[in-house]
Automatic annotation (TrEMBL):
<dbReference type="InterPro" id="IPR014710">
    <property type="entry name" value="RmlC-like_jellyroll"/>
</dbReference>
<dbReference type="InterPro" id="IPR025499">
    <property type="entry name" value="KdgF"/>
</dbReference>
<dbReference type="InterPro" id="IPR011051">
    <property type="entry name" value="RmlC_Cupin_sf"/>
</dbReference>
<feature type="domain" description="Cupin type-2">
    <location>
        <begin position="22"/>
        <end position="83"/>
    </location>
</feature>
<dbReference type="InterPro" id="IPR013096">
    <property type="entry name" value="Cupin_2"/>
</dbReference>
<dbReference type="InterPro" id="IPR052535">
    <property type="entry name" value="Bacilysin_H2HPP_isomerase"/>
</dbReference>
<protein>
    <submittedName>
        <fullName>Cupin domain-containing protein</fullName>
    </submittedName>
</protein>
<dbReference type="Pfam" id="PF07883">
    <property type="entry name" value="Cupin_2"/>
</dbReference>
Length: 94
């Protein structure tokens, strides 16, 4: 399960709360917006541009513009994603 909630979208910055269930495996994603992901709860493996890293509560992952990335959830998690500029596709609910 993936649950997204846009918490803020002001100027050129967007904050999105993402909740993911244990054992969720995300498809590869790639977008022009820079992204910073803060792990609020749980643990997740991020793969960014071919490099894997396990993150736990309190850890942060930076994802550069156009870097291919994906997540594999180890323990149900809540992630706060910050994007710049704003991801208009998330505002449209896509």
């Amino acid at each position: 399960m993936v649950k997204r909630e846009v918490l803020a979208s002001e100027g050129s910055v967007m904050v999105v709360k993402v909740e993911l269930d244990k054992d969720f495996h995300g498809d590869e994603d790639k977008h022009v917006e820079e992204q910073v992901s803060y792990i609020e709860k749980g643990s997740v493996e991020f793969e960014v541009a071919g490099e894997k890293r396990v993150l736990h509560e309190g850890d942060v992952q930076y994802i550069p513009s156009n870097a291919p990335h994906r997540v594999n959830v180890i323990e149900s998690c809540t992630i706060l994603d910050v994007f710049t500029p704003v991801r208009k596709d998330l505002l449209d609910g896509k």
